[in-house]
């Protein structure tokens, strides 16, 4: 299966039997990011976390206020 990175537009081939390939075929909202771009984003995110002025947004736990 041919896939295109959303950041650098590099076209790569991945095995069609991989779970990632199935996810990309069946759910168009999912996007592919090459390993280089994924590593770069992870490194920059970690660097921002180290500064202390960047916070990761976690899914808030549901509360039972309205029940």
Task: Briefly say what this structure is.
The protein has two helices and two strands, in the order E-E-H-H. With 67 residues, it is mostly helical. It has one domain (2-51).
Helical fraction equals 25-40%
Q: Indicate the overall shape.
A: elongated
Distance between the termini: 48 Å
Beta fraction:
5-15%
- Give the radius of gyration: 17 Å
Structural class: mainly alpha
Largest beta sheet: strand ordering: 1-2
* Low-confidence segments: none
- How would a textbook summarize the main sheet? 2 strands, antiparallel
Mean residue pLDDT: 84
Protein name: YlaI family protein
Organism: Alkalicoccus halolimnae
InterPro entries: DUF2197
Pfam families: DUF2197
Structural description of this entry:
It is a single chain. The protein is mainly alpha-helical. The protein has one domain. It is built from 2 helices and 2 strands, in the order E-E-H-H. The chain has helices at residues 19-26, 35-51; strands spanning 2-4, 11-13. Strands 1-2 form a two-stranded antiparallel sheet. The longest helix is centred in the middle third of the chain and has 17 residues, at 35-51. It is elongated. InterPro entries: DUF2197. This is YlaI family protein. It holds the Pfam family DUF2197.
